[in-house]
Amino acid sequence: MSSPCRDPERPAIAMRLLQIGLVTLLALSANDVLAQQGALPNVDRGPETASVTGLFPNGGAPPPPDPIGTQFEANKLAIEGGEVLFGQMNCTGCHFNGGGGMGPALMSGHWRYGGRIDQIYESIAQGRPNGMPSWQLVLQPTMIWELAAYVKSLSVPVSQIAVPDTGAKP
Amino acid sequence: MDAIWTSKRLQLLLAGALLVLHAASAAAQLPTVPASAAPPDDGQWTMPAKNYAATRYSALDEINGANVKNLQVAFAFSTGVVHGQEAAPIVANNTMYIVTPYPNIVFALDLTRPGAPLKWSYRPRPAAASQGVACCDVVNRGATYSDSRVFFNTLDNNTIALDAETGEMLWTTKLGDINTGETITMAPLVVKGKVLVGDSGGELGVRGWLTALDVNTGEIVWRAYATGPDKDVLIGPDFRSFYPSGNGVDLGVKTWPEDAWKTGGGTMWGWIAYDPDLNSIYYGTANPGPWNQEQRPGDNKWTATLFARDPDTGAAKWALQYNPHDEHDYDGINEQILVDMNVNGKPRKVLLHPDRNGHLYVVDRETGEIVSAQPYGYVNSILSIDLKTGRPVMNPDKLTKLDTVVHDICPTASGLKDWNPSAYSPLTGLMYIPHENLCMDWKSRQVAYIAGTPFLGAEVITKAGPGGNRGEFTAWDPVKGKAVWTIKEDLPLWSGTMATAGGLVFYGTMDGWFKAVDAKTGELKWQFRTGSGIVGQPVAYRGPDGHEYVAILSGVGGWAGAIVSGDLDPRDPTGALGFNGVMADLKTKTAPGGTLYVFALPRS
Q1: Tens digits of per-residue pLDDT, B298-348?
Q2: Model pLDDT, residue A40
Q3: Which has the least CB within 10 A, A23, A132, B37, B142?
Q4: Averaged confidence pLDDT in chain B
Q5: Residue of chain A nearest B584, judged by CA positions
């Protein structure tokens, strides 16, 4: 076998495979945990239709919420699973614990592309133009629903959060 | 006629400056600035650092301590962009050039006409998705002018050359890929027919580099990586570091776990200085990745490292790793100011570098030896810098650990000082350092590398340092190695500074005050409340009317100001890489919005 270093393409391909393997591994382990608990549907699709606008010409109305979404929303297991994935997929590096950074805040209750769980699903799956990556080729629909459930749970009223101590005690 | 008048005026001015300088030198042997790196002031401001020595010193003296109280707005210009305005306005050939944060619009203003109207603008339209991989707001630190051309970088990794007169695009070269987390935020520097550009993305597992492009064609002449084998780092047989730990074969590979150098950071988003006499450029590399140090045992060369390189070939001459195996995000990208000064009675060619780790390094430009390294504010993470090894002596109580919160590490991740550059006045012999007084709690976490996402592995909460004031403005005597005076500021200082022959030093605050203080005493002489917080770089120039003007971009943002420019939620103190909590009040003190302000004395 020749040294992988001789072919400049090969380390790059190996790295990519490694990444995909890693992501799949993480995905499977997260799924296994939830499957064992037996409480969440294993779905193979996102919402039927979800819109990011509040404008519907000629008397139209927003599409109704997808019933799959309601199975995940406010579901403790889904939220816990989503929180694990939120860390594993490096969502925390941009959104932190909801306060935002590279990406927008997720706890403020203000949603650029809609705060319904099916809208959040689509933002994660499709990505959004100002920097949100698209995860639909990396994560299975169940995982995206879990992530959406966790993200949705981050909006909390001001009164429920303790104010952090900001002074140092060096 | 005009030219003769100007040059006569310049001569007088120089003669005056020399007299003052001479008198002062006789008294105290002040450090001097190498003439080849800082030619006589022509009244322009063609690169962000003013000159290759990076003094940010203007020899103009019309605006001085006696009349600065009369300073007023001459004209203003809205950039239309609501992110952090970190750029220095550039002035050349009676035109001012400003580059905005993403979407990186370049505006050219005609200084010869009343109100400095728009001459042309250029919109590069960078990929919107690039905003999602910029760690700390979507900033740009400025353009640079050389030989009738304007050079600047876009967030999505293009270096672009424009015709300075018309705004016509001459060439564009793509240097990186946002899908690996790369962006560019730094201001390029032109040295010997090459445009020098480095990348950003140390929080996304980017492999850092500095690249030289041909000024005429945009072709890549050389690229020097910060990590990897010597051939990639451009380390050859002539490389010799002063300290033994800086010498060896392929240290950019061997000081990492297997393959970790490929995602190890060491980007270059800060400042480059150039010494024409020694034919060396000097710059520092950024932090290693990930922030969780337990995933990368070893020195992690050549991250957080000062390099001296030959600008023609890129070949490294020597390296000095400020922070081997950094575990606090102490990048080495801050400015280096070139001065010649006596050390123990011997003249030395040195550079002055206020590192993120809180120490003011005086480094020999020829050898890379640390002449001295003193803390310029409150530091507890490092006990001292060992001058025998060149390495910091770390405080074991402030080292970071997996899944453990280590409290009250000072300085914080953004350092005792971040990117915002200092100035040096040859009149006072003092360096003026705009900096922070912040500490942090740090918890490391295991992190997996997924290309194009943050490769971080830490949860940080920043806090005010001792005394509660989050910012400080320090006048530093590089010969004595100590502060002469310090101004305490409530908010962290994220703006650059400029010193002038008028005996003044200018800087801005994050709640929008633009200030002039006495260069000798620090006494506040004048201030003006601009429309938004200031995170930019002040400059001075001589207008076509022969008078002195001072310019600054206002518009809060950047890492420290992201809470306002990104409308972040202060209830999560870990947000914005740990900056959210400590900046919670900024939203009540300023609002986003980019505006150029230019000041002058009233015309009687």
Answers
A1: 999 999 999 999 999 999 999 999 999 999 999 999 999 999 999 999 999
A2: 80
A3: A23
A4: 96
A5: A166
What's the pTM value of the predicted model, to 2 decimals? Answer: 0.91
Chain-centroid distance of CA B131 in Å reads: 21
Report, as an integer, the average pLDDT of B80-89.
Answer: 98
Of the candidates B128, B195, B123, the one whose C-alpha atom is nearest the C-alpha of residue B156 is B128
Nearest to B380 among A22, A167, A170 (CB): A170
Q: How many residues does chain B have?
A: 604
Tokens standing for B515? 């200030």
What is the distance between the alpha carbons of residues B32 and B525, in angstroms, rounded to a whole number?
Answer: 26
Structural domain count, chain B: 1
Query: What distance in Å separates residue B408's CA from the closest CA in chain A?
Result: 5
CATH of the domain at B424: 2.140.10.10
Query: Is residue B1 classed as helix, strand or coil in its secondary structure?
Result: coil
Active-site residue, from B64, B140, B287, B300: B287
The catalytically annotated residue of B199, B203, B331, B472 is B203
Query: What ipTM did this prediction achieve?
Result: 0.92
Q: What domains sit in chain A, N to C, each tagged with a CATH number?
A: 9-53+63-157 (1.10.760.10)
Give the 3-state DSSP-derived string for B115-146, with helices as H, strands as E and coil as C.
CCCEEEEECCCCCHHHHHHCECECCCCECEEE
Question: What is the H or E stretch that residue B228 is in?
Answer: none
- Residues in chain B closer than 8 A to A94 (CB atoms): 132, 453-454
Interface test mutation site (partner B, options A102, A111, A113, max chain B beta carbons within 10 A) = A102
- Say yes or no to pLDDT of B132 above 70: yes
Q: Is B68 helix (H, G, I), strand (E, B) or coil?
A: helix
Q: Please, which residues have CB within 8 angstroms of residue B474's CB and are 6 or more apart in sequence?
A: B376, B377, B432, B433, B435, B483, B485, B486, B487
B595 within some domain: yes
Q: CA-based angle B285:B290:B294, to the nearest 5?
A: 115
Q: Is residue B535 part of a domain?
A: yes
User: How many contacts (CB atoms, under 8 Å) link A and B?
Assistant: 148
Distance from CA of A100 to the nearest CA of B (A): 5
Residues spanned by the domain of B445: 31-600
